[in-house]
Design goal:
Strand content: 25-35%
Oligomer: single chain
Structural class: alpha+beta
Order of helices and strands: EEHEEEHEEHEEHEHHEEHEE
Distance between the termini: 31 Å
Number of strands: 14
Helix content: 25-40%
Shape: globular
Largest sheet: 10 strands, mixed
């Protein structure tokens, strides 16, 4: 069976507590470096930093901090594998699988195994393309949905022996992460593909994923067919969540709850959801990333 999912090599912080910041960026009086720690990491950069508001120095500092984090040992490289992430929020415990998605399946004209759910702002997408081209680390901003009515995949996964990585309280939720070894991930990626019904839909990160796709197109044009098969730019980190999970709650841009059946109908018809698309109701916090190199 063909799959658009790949097993990444992830980086995680050695000190998780030091990476958590409130959503508004307040740090309780402590000085922290933007760009690597907290919720304003690359891939989660606040849109106003990318809209030409004289923030280039701050963005450059973020990129420098990524190199520093790699060089001074702030980040620990893991073996190949997925990550099972649990977020205890006001809506329940939301579970997600962090993996890589093949951008070849995000087709600008539609019809691929990965589909956007909202119209995008070209200026913001282009700004994200430029940032991706200059970044050494990628942090996941994209959340993709699959449909598993009986939650078979997660129930089977939670019977496996996984490696605990962290359990930490944040101002938004309680986070728990467990490492999924590659031999388990190999089987899991094919099981996950079976629940892409009718596709993997973007619940968060439409701009980020489209920017990754456009940058891949630019990069692929310079590569041979062999080089393009496993080039880092071909893939993007994403969290896969079960749309049928009661803890997965969605709203539109006006903060109006979205009915999941309506979203599924839009995905089947390969159309964008109106009113600015859909989004998850709780804050997306990124603690894991992967090193990317385009040399």
């Amino acid at each position: 069976m063909k799959t658009c999912i790949r097993i990444p090599r992830l980086f995680v912080p050695r000190d998780y507590e030091d990476w958590i910041l409130p959503a508004d960026g307040a740090d309780g009086g402590r000085t922290q470096r933007e760009g690597v720690r907290g919720v304003t990491v690359h891939g989660c950069i606040a849109p106003h930093l990318l809209r030409g508001n004289g923030e280039e120095e701050k963005l450059a500092a973020m990129r420098d901090n990524m190199y520093t984090a790699l060089e001074n040992g702030e980040l620990e490289g893991l073996e190949r594998g997925f990550l099972l992430v649990r977020r205890k929020t006001a809506f329940g415990v939301r579970r997600g699988i962090l993996a890589c998605v093949d951008l070849e399946e995000l087709l600008p004209g539609g019809g691929g195994a990965v589909r956007l759910t909202a119209e995008t702002d070209p200026a913001l997408v282009n700004a994200l393309v430029r940032e991706r081209a200059q970044a050494v680390l990628e942090f996941p901003r994209t959340v993709l949905c699959y449909r598993d009515k009986r939650d078979k995949l997660m129930r089977a996964l939670e019977e496996e022996e996984l490696a605990p990585l962290y359990e930490i309280d944040t101002p938004q939720c309680t986070l728990n992460g467990e490492f999924i070894y590659d031999f388990i991930a190999e089987e899991l990626l094919y099981d996950l593909m079976r629940y892409a019904d009718p596709c993997f839909g973007v619940l968060d990160g439409n701009h980020t994923l489209l920017a990754a796709r456009l940058f891949w197109e630019q990069t692929k044009a310079k590569l041979s067919e062999r080089e393009a098969r496993n080039h880092p730019a071909r893939f993007a980190l994403a969290e896969f969540v079960n749309l049928c999970d009661p803890a997965v709650q969605l709203t539109d841009a006006g903060n109006i709850p979205v009915k999941k059946d309506e979203l599924l109908s839009m995905l089947k018809a390969d159309k964008k959801y109106p009113a600015g698309g859909v989004r998850l109701r709780e804050e997306r916090i990124s603690l894991e990333g992967r090193e990317i190199s385009y040399d």
